Amino acid sequence: MMLTKSDVTNILDVIIKIIEDNRQYLTDLDAAIGDADHGINLDRGFKAVRDKMTQFLDKDIGTILKNVGMVLVSTVGGASGPLYGTFFMRMGNAVSGKSVLDENDIVAMFEAGLSGIKERGKAQFGDKTMIDAMEPALNELKKALSEGRNLKEAIGAAANAAYNGVLMTKDIAAKKGRASYLGERSIGHQDPGATSAYLMIKTVADYVDKLQQ
Amino acid sequence: MVGIVIVSHSKKVADGLYELADQMTGGKIRIGKSGGTKDGRLGTNVDEIVEEIKKCESGDGVLVLVDLGSSVMSAQMALEFLDGEYAGKVEIADAPLVEGTIAASVEASIGSDILKVKAVAEAAKNLVKI
């Protein structure tokens, strides 16, 4: 199974919509342990992506993703700007010049994006951040593909792993960001960054699930 | 002389700290400031940080002082975007914003190099006030 450029832009369109729909939910999660702006900031960033997308839609997938990252960096304003910005820019670098993506490309771009986030935020799995959803998803994606499952099943399994990662963030204390000032008091609250990362991965899984192949 | 760039989530913090540092150094050095997002919210703005660093670079380098969280990441991204002719000339101080900025500005105003200015800013962490 391959993803075309129009699949990628369709997925981006749905992500923009999902972030808009969950703007208040993400902000409410952030109100408990952060500065109550995660949903607002991300929505602002992705709306800017929607406004500027026509300027780079004729480019290859790598360039489109790099541009998405640049727009997020310039417009989000909170920590999720440099983090998701780096994520999309690194994903773009990993698939530079491509107009279709195969399974290896998808793994390579996810891997590059995640390692970008880890470098930028100096965080790791278990710190109560977006990595807690992304890393299990990547591991599950690789595992499912290596077991010979198709991309549809593998991305579905990855989304489930991301969801379990989100649930895990409820049970641990924050080590990064504003929530870390709360220390143990952050336990019991679901991490907004892990939640937005899960929403994006789930969007990709749902989209791929509907593809006729 | 080494330039100083102040990065905060708040425009008011950046403006106020600029005012303090500029008074302490009597306008001898270039001090830049970036606070808040383009549309006036609390947050940081990579594009503006890049512009301010460019404005403050006179050949001797620029030290960037940051407050918390995304200001650190945004400043690091700004440095990556500036790579090339600015490589190795711009540094981010691991210092408290107010004390570090004042210490660094005064040090820069007496003509010290970027590494000395950075070291003085970072030493402000150990400043005993009372």
Features:
heterodimer, A: 213 residues, mainly alpha, two-stranded antiparallel sheet, 2% strand, globular, B: 130 residues, alpha/beta, Rossmann fold, 4 strands, PTS_EIIA_man-typ_sf (chain B), phosphoenolpyruvate-glycerone phosphotransferase activity (chain B), EC 2.7.1.121 (chain B), transferase (chain B), phosphoenolpyruvate--glycerone phosphotransferase (chain B)
Question: How does this structure look, described?
Answer:
The complex is a heterodimer of chains A (213) and B (130). Chain A is 69% helix and 2% strand. Chain A has helices spanning 5-21, 23-33, 38-52, 61-75, 80-94, 103-121, 131-146, 151-169, 192-210; strands at residues 3-4, 100-101. In chain B, 48% of the residues lie in helices and 15% in strands. The longest helix of chain B has 15 residues, at 11-25. Chain B has helices spanning 11-25, 46-56, 70-82, 97-109, 114-123; strands at 3-8, 31-35, 62-66, 90-93. Chain B has a 4-stranded parallel sheet with strand order 2-1-3-4, sandwiched between helices. Chain B has one domain (3-126): Rossmann fold. Chain B: Residues 1-128 form the PTS EIIA type-4 domain. Chain B: It comes from Thermoanaerobacterium aotearoense SCUT27. Chain B: Homodimer. The dihydroxyacetone kinase complex is composed of a homodimer of DhaM, a homodimer of DhaK and the subunit DhaL. Chain B: One of its GO terms (biological process) is glycerol catabolic process.
